[in-house]
Automatic annotation (TrEMBL):
Keywords, alphabetical: 2Fe-2S, Iron, Iron-sulfur, Metal-binding, Oxidoreductase
Pfam families: Rieske
Descriptive protein name: Rieske [2Fe-2S] domain-containing protein
Record flagged with keyword Glycoprotein: no
Transmembrane spans: none
UniProt-listed PROSITE patterns: RIESKE (PS51296)
Boundaries of every Rieske domain copy: 20-121
Keyword Cell membrane carried by entry: no
Annotated PANTHER family: 3-KETOSTEROID-9-ALPHA-MONOOXYGENASE, OXYGENASE COMPONENT, IRON-SULFUR DOMAIN CONTAINING PROTEIN
Annotated Gene3D superfamilies: Rieske [2Fe-2S] iron-sulphur domain
MF terms in GO: 2 iron, 2 sulfur cluster binding; metal ion binding; monooxygenase activity; oxidoreductase activity, acting on paired donors, with incorporation or reduction of molecular oxygen
InterPro entries in the cross-refs: Cholesterol_7-desaturase, Rieske_2Fe-2S, Rieske_2Fe-2S_sf
Lineage: superkingdom: Bacteria
Length: 349
């Protein structure tokens, strides 16, 4: 009856969902530079070619295993520091200087993308699907800043459910209204939980701000690949957007980065307004992060006694467990998919 077991992907320190993962901020990788990045247990060399495109390759040179981040970017390719073999942007060996011709070897490359000021890597053998995005901003231009980078002593899945742990909004964050979520699948890798209550008539604060809301208090969380969450919250006339981009470290710990987003506003005035709004968004994010910082350093997550208020958490666990799992470090596909029996266990509560 436990919500976590070795067969489930959720909260598993050895498995993760195939998907897009943040690698490093775009600003940290200038044209012609290469960086060593350890992502989900695997070592990569990520570089920016002369045209500006970002290329991610497995770190170790097929010749003798030198780390390619010690090498040099040349055009769209990379040259190994050690014996100067060169690989192009497809990872194909195009030069072995001592032989005067290339050898038929290659390094593995991974799809990359840049969005919200971040370089993302597609981790998986399948064709990449959609990059994480804020649902409300799918087709509009936006502005962003990177917020804080942090490490937590618990699994990314566990950290992320904080945003839909309806009960703790009252106990930890003193929110004077009851939050009730309705879930909606955006696609097979993304699920949205949106608050559907107006609630809180007994609170003077809620009565005061009531005129600002058309229907309910806007608060929704969209989860992508079980590892990145985008929060949308605020009154009708001004929505704040906070992205929690997480990835798993050794032993199921979390390394994360917050990204603050707002709609694009034109002109110098628009730009100035956005600086203020993004700063404000960061304060909103900090407020929610601050209340329960400590509990995530010590938690041993195991939802043994789910109550009604935990319904969304169970749904999220199920959503994560239904996705394609890969293995920590090797990035190999997991052969035995989660049995439907173990999913069913959650539904019985
Ligand atoms: S180890 Fe890379 S060229 Fe020899
Ligand atoms: Fe919280």
């Amino acid at each position: 009856m436990h919500s976590t077991s070795t067969t489930s992907i959720f909260n598993n320190p050895k498995l993760f969902v195939e998907g897009w993962y943040w690698a490093l901020p775009s600003k940290k990788l200038k044209i012609g530079k290469v960086k060593a990045v350890k992502l989900l247990g695997r070592n990569l060399a990520i570089y920016r070619g002369a045209s500006g495109q970002v290329i991610a390759v497995d770190a170790y040179c097929p010749h003798m295993g030198a780390h390619l981040a010690e090498g040099k970017v040349e055009g769209e390719g990379i040259r190994c520091f050690f014996h100067n073999w060169k690989y192009d942007e497809r990872g194909i060996c195009v030069e072995v200087p001592s032989l005067g011709k290339p050898l038929p070897v290659c390094i593995k490359t991974w799809s990359t993308a840049e969005k919200y000021g971040m370089i993302w890597v597609w981790v998986g053998e399948d064709k990449p699907s959609k990059l994480p995005f804020v649902p409300e901003l799918e087709n509009v231009e936006f502005d962003y800043i990177l917020g804080t980078r942090f490490v937590k002593n618990c699994h990314p899945n566990v950290l992320l459910i904080n945003a839909i742990d309806a009960h703790h909004f009252n106990t930890v964050h003193n929110l004077p209204l009851e939050i009730v979520f309705d879930s909606q699948n955006l696609n097979s890798n993304a699920i949205t939980f949106s608050n559907i209550t107006r609630g809180g008539d007994d609170s003077w604060l809620i009565r005061l701000i009531r005129p600002l809301y058309r229907n309910e208090v806007t608060y929704s969380m969209c989860y992508w690949y079980g590892n990145t969450g985008t929060v949308t919250l605020g009154p009708d006339f001004l929505h704040f957007y906070i992205i929690f981009a997480l990835r798993m470290l050794e032993d199921g710990k979390t390394e994360g980065q917050t990204i603050l987003v707002t709609r694009k506003r034109n002109g110098f005035l628009g730009w100035s307004v956005n600086r203020v709004l993004l700063w404000l968004t960061q304060q909103v994010g900090n407020y929610f992060a601050k209340g329960d910082t400590q509990v995530f350093q010590t938690i041993q997550f195991d939802l043994k006694i789910p109550i009604k208020a935990d319904q969304s958490i169970l749904q999220f666990i199920q959503h994560v467990n239904q996705q394609k799992a890969l293995t920590w470090k090797t990035w190999e596909t997991v052969d035995s998919p989660i049995s439907s029996a173990s999913l069913f266990e959650h539904e019985q509560h």
